[in-house]
TrEMBL record:
Cellular component per GO, a single term: membrane protein complex
Species, as recorded: Roseovarius lutimaris
Keyword field: ATP-binding, Cell inner membrane, Cell membrane, Membrane, Nucleotide-binding, Transport
Name listed for the protein in its UniProt record: Putative ABC transport system ATP-binding protein
Residue ranges annotated for the ABC transporter domain, each copy included: 8-229
GO MF annotation terms: ATP binding; ATP hydrolysis activity; transmembrane transporter activity
Similarity remark: Belongs to the ABC transporter superfamily. Macrolide exporter (TC 3.A.1.122) family.
Pfam families per UniProt: ABC_tran (PF00005)
InterPro entries: AAA+_ATPase (IPR003593), ABC_heterocyst_DevA (IPR014324), ABC_transporter-like_ATP-bd (IPR003439), ABC_transporter-like_CS (IPR017871), ABC_transpr_LolD-like (IPR015854), MacB-like_ATP-bd (IPR017911), P-loop_NTPase (IPR027417)
Upper classification of the organism: Bacteria, Pseudomonadati, Pseudomonadota, Alphaproteobacteria, Rhodobacterales
Length: 229
């Protein structure tokens, strides 16, 4: 197993074509240690989400290299990217829960794509994850009957239930109160220690900065500070 599940070399990224072509990411170089929790910070428009989606195989690599779990993403066939994405857990701001499904069913979706375990085991794992996130009494609620923070925690449960090797999160605590935000980040840290799960998280949340192993700041598409703590 690799010590650095995310290796970025000479990464550039552009949006638009012709006159409108604009560079959003400039010569990023990064090695992220297995089991660590890294925070990406920076002003609006500095490229945080673009970098996260490039690392997560959600965007085509145009120039440079991203090696994810020992696989080069640049030029990789779509089938390989799909297989790699299944090894990741994504937590995005727009949590994309299915409105017609209960909390448990939404979390189950995080397992069904993997086809791991039988139905009873999958259900038990989903309940366990919801319980850990303080949603034991909300298992059978549909999203319309959950608060913003509860929905966000369901999305966290869905991302983590499959035991992903890497978790990529965009503002996962933005909709959460202090205690829930703390619980989510503590969970990610503890998964890092016990299972070697690697987390990269975009956040503006000052409450969780001190919980990170490393804080990287972007400005105008470039890394301007990179601090381990
Ligand atoms: N789909 C797109 N088409 C064109 N330009 C884009 C697109 N997505 C992002 N950009 C531009 O790329 C730059 C980086 O955007 P990005 O969303 O990565 O920043 P960010 O740091 O995540 O910002 P925020 O904190 O506001 O989410 C910005 O100038 C943005 O306008």
């Amino acid at each position: 197993m690799t010590d650095s599940p995310i290796e970025v070399r000479g990464l550039n990224h552009f949006f638009g074509t012709g006159e409108a072509r604009k560079q959003a990411i400039f010569d990023i170089n990064l090695s992220i240690a297995r089991g660590s929790l890294t925070i990406l910070m920076g002003p609006s428009g500095s490229g945080k989400t673009t970098l996260l989606t490039l690392i997560g195989a959600l965007r085509e690599i145009q120039d440079g290299s991203v090696v994810l779990l020992d696989h080069e993403l640049h030029g990789a066939p779509e089938a390989d990217l799909v297989a790699l994405r299944r090894r990741l857990g994504f937590i995005f701001q727009a949590h994309n829960l299915h409105e017609s499904l209960t909390a448990t069913q939404n979390v189950l979706m995080g397992l069904e794509v993997h086809g791991k375990g039988n139905a009873a085991k999958q259900r038990a794992a989903s309940h366990h994850m919801l319980d850990l996130l303080g949603l034991a009494d909300r298992r059978e609620y549909v999203p319309a009957n959950l608060s913003g923070g509860q929905k966000q925690r369901v999305a966290v449960a869905r991302a983590l239930v499959s035991n992903p090797e890497i978790v990529l999160a965009d503002e996962p605590t933005a909709a959460l109160d202090k205690a829930s935000g703390h619980t989510v980040v503590e969970m990610l840290k503890s998964l890092g220690k016990t299972r070697g799960t690697t987390t990269v998280m975009v956040t503006h949340d000052p409450r969780i900065l001190q919980m990170a192993d490393r804080i990287i700041t972007l400005e105008d598409g470039r890394i301007v500070t990179d601090k381990s703590q």
